[in-house]
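Let us begin with a simple case.
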Amino acid sequence: MIETYLQPLPHGITLSCRAAGERGRPVLLFLHGFPEAAFVWDELLAHFARPDHGGFRCVAPNLRGYERSSAPAEVQAYRARHLVQDIAALIGIEGAPLECLVAHDWGGAIAWGLANQRPQLARRLAIVNSPHPGTFLRELKANPQQQKASAYMNFLVRPDAERRLAEDDYRRMWPLFSHHGAPATWMTDAVRQQYREVWNGPPGSPPGAGLVGGCNFYRASPLRPATPQNPGASAVTLPREMLTVPLPTMVLWGMDDIALLPALLDGLDDYVPRLTLERVPGASHWIVHERPDFVAQRLQAFLHAPLQ
């Protein structure tokens, strides 16, 4: 049974959340990416809340700017430090041990940051197809293939991005979920409608209003390919102390991800010494949808492995 609720945070942001399991139990916190929302974790929330799968308290917030969560108008409100602050505050409110922070795509960017800055808040970290900032910065600076694969970011920062993405019933959006050009078999009509409702925003909003927050994540971040108008990642330097992650960390990586290339995994263990990395052939960026049972099984094993 998935419950939904609005959770005010002490610093004035409210996050709309989806959850399963009893309060007071050890917590699993799930962070979604773009262009998704908290509902994409429902199957895993229900799975891990079951007593025979750990009986966890499972919580998936909609990140700021998504669904019914607070959506500040200023782009600077979507800088990484604010996003990390939201999740740290939510962990504090749950008031129980955070057994694992589980994250995909942009949620992973937040999770990498929190695990670096506030490692005492979680016992474990699980990342699904979300690049570590150190390897991502390296590849955006030096790898033409990753620069080309990430070129879409420079579309998403355009002032008219949301309006253009909304055209013709989100014509540009649905192909994002394809695998080698084939339609995503998991994208049923019902699931498609869930996405559409999130992207539409509140009733009466202009087309694509629900995408503004997600696009603001890209606008607020300098980690994107350089253009003649903007130096992007080429002007960024990240000190080593901002990159090391001390937590036991599992990374699952669908190797057919066309936006985040396998070279992003090279040297990852230099930043994450307690790393378990599994490359998954035949799975794409959307491995959580394509192979939910596999993801659940790997996460279950990770949660029960001894802490090293």
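The second case is a distinct protein. As before, the sequence precedes its structure tokens.
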Amino acid sequence: TLKLTDVDANSAIFNIANTFKLTVERFGGSIETHLDAMNAIVEVDEMHFTNVIFNLLDNAVKYSREDVPPHLVITSRDLESDRLQITVADNGIGVSKEDQKSIFEKFFRVNTGNRHDVKGFGLGLAYVKKMITELGGDITVESHLNKGTKFIIILPLSKS
């Protein structure tokens, strides 16, 4: 059961990014926010919304490249039809076109070759997709191998 309340997505994302900053810096990386949406009030379950953003940031660090420090960028912007767009982008290992079709499925894990340091059960992105869908939104992915990944979340603005 979701406990829906009006949440300022810009404020929530700013706080999440600040909390996550230490994790990124531990890997020699950086995180930046560009929260340009003028209206970012969304009706969400704040705990699940936080978990969604945190999960995407955590994956960005987990799947970072070994040759460059992780660089994460979170943005928000207004869309027409009373919608908000949030993007979480990284400069990590990327996801192949083939794997992009399956990453939101339960238990699917991208093959990371001989890297054995990536832990998980393949549930994170399935959870992210389910939560965004439950909130009346949509999530898509754009990715290029060895260049990075961008998750694009679209959520309806609060009607109140």
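The beta strands are 5-8, 30-35, 41-44, 71-79, 83-89, 138-144, 148-156. The mean pLDDT is 91.
Keep these points in mind for the review questions at the end of the chapter.
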